[in-house]
Amino acid sequence: MSASLIDGKALAAKVKSQLVESVAQVKAERGFPPGIAVVRVGEDPASKIYVTSKKKTAEELGFGSWEHALPATTTQAELLDWVRRLNADPKVDGILVQLPLPKHIDSNAVLLAIDPAKDVDGFHPCNAGSLFQGRPALAPCTPSGVMRMLEEISFSPAGKKAVVVGRSNIVGRPMAALLINASATVTVCHSKSDVAHEVRQADVVVAAVGISGLIKGEWVKPGSVVIDVGMNRGPDGKLSGDVEFAAAKERAGWITPVPGGVGPMTIAMLMSNTVQAAGPNCGRAKR
Ligand code: NAP
């Protein structure tokens, strides 16, 4: 058996095209479109690429879009000032501070300063807490993209055994919360876990570790869904995932490729979160 591929690029395009109508609706209702402001500090090359791509997508969808590129010498107080200004700007529905920040800035303090109603990355403890309590929240984009992929293949997590490998605040933990909220039976693995033992029993595996090929194909339960969040750049510059793709593909029912899997979904879900933040249940009506 060979698994079917979940095409993240095609699904991301679909998600974005479905947002067009909501963007027009927001604009018609209040006179201006959903708006996203991205703040970048310093000259990290990867951050520059990510921010450019987020801004480009936002513009394609007709969002208001602002990039604030601040020098590496920006102090924490100055950055907090920027965040406060954006919190108060009615045209800005979503604020994203691109990580990593320079070492002299306390990232947690900056993320805490973002108005939770504008926290389109879903990293603020208010949103993380609401997500874990099963209440409405702006959820982190990458795990939300994974849930959208499961929906697309009509995989219902209810009653299924889900194994999440990785427990970061950005991917693993919110992924586990979303799967719990969808009534899966969830196991979270980390560096001290017997990953092979857990993966062998999983109906759905989400790998978010950052080690190329850590999840062996032979561990994959036949017919299961394998979602590979990992993005690992090899010495040859090639991207690979956390799953041994070729071997896992022979056993899984569905599998995501790297690249072209979860990666493209992240920006699409960021746009979706921004539209959500512009809506009446999340936006300024509450503040
Ligand atoms: P992270 O913060 O470094 O967390 C990695 C997690 O993996 C940790 O919880 C760690 O466990 C666990 N781990 C490390 N070695 C392990 C092992 N041998 N067995 C089991 N678990 C192990 O990474 P992250 O930010 O979540 O990112 C994970 C991967 O996803 C990276 O490749 C990243 O580039 C990728 N990513 C992709 C997207 C996307 O849009 N596609 C978005 C975000 C991240 P401990 O907690 O015990 O240390």
How are the secondary structure elements laid out?
Layout: E1 4-5, H1 8-30, E2 35-41, H2 45-60, E3 64-70, H3 76-88, E4 94-97, H4 107-113, H5 125-132, H6 141-152, E5 161-165, H7 172-181, E6 185-189, H8 195-199, E7 204-207, E8 225-228, E9 232-233, E10 239-240, H9 245-249, E11 254-255, H10 262-278
Parallel strand pairs: 1-11, 2-3, 2-4, 5-6, 5-7, 7-8, 8-11
Antiparallel strand pairs: 9-10
Helix pairs in contact: 1-10, 2-10, 6-7, 6-10
This protein binds NADP nicotinamide-adenine-dinucleotide phosphate.
NADP nicotinamide-adenine-dinucleotide phosphate binds near residues 208 and 214.
**What is the architecture of the largest domain at the second tier of CATH?**
3-Layer(aba) Sandwich
Return the average pLDDT rounded to an integer.
Answer: 96
The number of strands is 11
Radius of gyration using CA atoms only: 19 Å
CATH superfamily of the largest domain: NAD(P)-binding Rossmann-like Domain
**Strand order within the widest beta sheet:** 1-11-8-7-5-6
Poorly predicted ranges: 283-287
Q: Regarding CATH, which class of the largest domain?
A: Alpha Beta
- Provide the number of structural domains: 2
CATH fold type of the largest domain: Rossmann fold
Rough outline: globular
Largest sheet: 6 strands, parallel
| Strand content range | 15-25%
Supply the helix-strand structural class.
alpha/beta
Bound molecules: NADP nicotinamide-adenine-dinucleotide phosphate
Topology as a string of helices (H) and strands (E):
EHEHEHEHHHEHEHEEEEHEH
SS summary, helix count: 10
